[in-house]
User: Fold this.
Amino acid sequence: MDADPEGYFNSSMLFKATILTISFTTFYFYRQGQPFFRMDKPIAKQDTLAKVDNSKPAAKKKKKTIYLTFDDGPCKGSKTVFAILKQEQIPATLFIIGEHVYGSKAQLAIYDSLKESSLIEIANHSYTHAFENKFYKFYSEPDSATKDFKRCADSLHFTSNIIRTPGRNIWRTENVNSTDLKTSSAAADSLQTKGFIAVGWDIEWHFNATQRIVEDDSEMLRNIDSAFARNETKTKNHLVLLTHDRTFAKPEDSAKLHRFIAALKVKDEYDFEMVSEYPGLTKDTIVGK
Assistant:
């Protein structure tokens, strides 16, 4: 059987057309100076997710540190002080008197709330506050003074050895040894021998006979700035401020405390720490044996 002449013709024409197309295309790319076959690199798949750095920058440590301390609590002013510290989120150390804790159910309740707060550090201010302000007798009997502090520590289950001596600005730390009245030195040394760490103060917010504060908040701010500028602190760039809970019981006085703390924060020059963070007070030295 003979082959189909029409099929042959179609195949022949298709072959010729293919040859012509290849020839024309080769000639065209040759004239353009481009290779006929070009292998482009594959396009890399782009990451469409935005990369966000969620890490928080480390808080910049300021050069000056203030240690707010409040003596003689718990008392009527303690709740107000506590409320201000919570609102401003500022830490403080409260030097507690044992007799005051057990003075009433209300005072015991205040103490319980204070010791549960992460902003509050509780420290020892003796059990009887120097035999109820009999300072000469208290400091002339070193053994009795030491027993009074130990009684407070035992009754309130303190694990810290930090103390403040009532009515006296006494320091007994690794870095600072200071006594305001020489007649108190024997008692101070006895306390240190028994493992207590006495922390005094650099500036006091004074009060009068009616338990009202003397200096207003703006004056205290100037006193703080001046003490740092003149290097009038026991440790350079570290300032311990002494105040008393009871002097902030009235609204007009507590308002001054609130304005004072808020103004210190606005200045953005100071850090606030608890006394246990004071230079020379390490965990090994402040924890009771």
Remarks:
- Residues 1-11, 35-52 have pLDDT under 50 and may be disordered.
- The chain has eleven helices and ten strands.
- The beta strands are 64-73, 92-96, 120-124, 162-163, 170-172, 177-179, 197-198, 203-204, 238-244, 270-272.
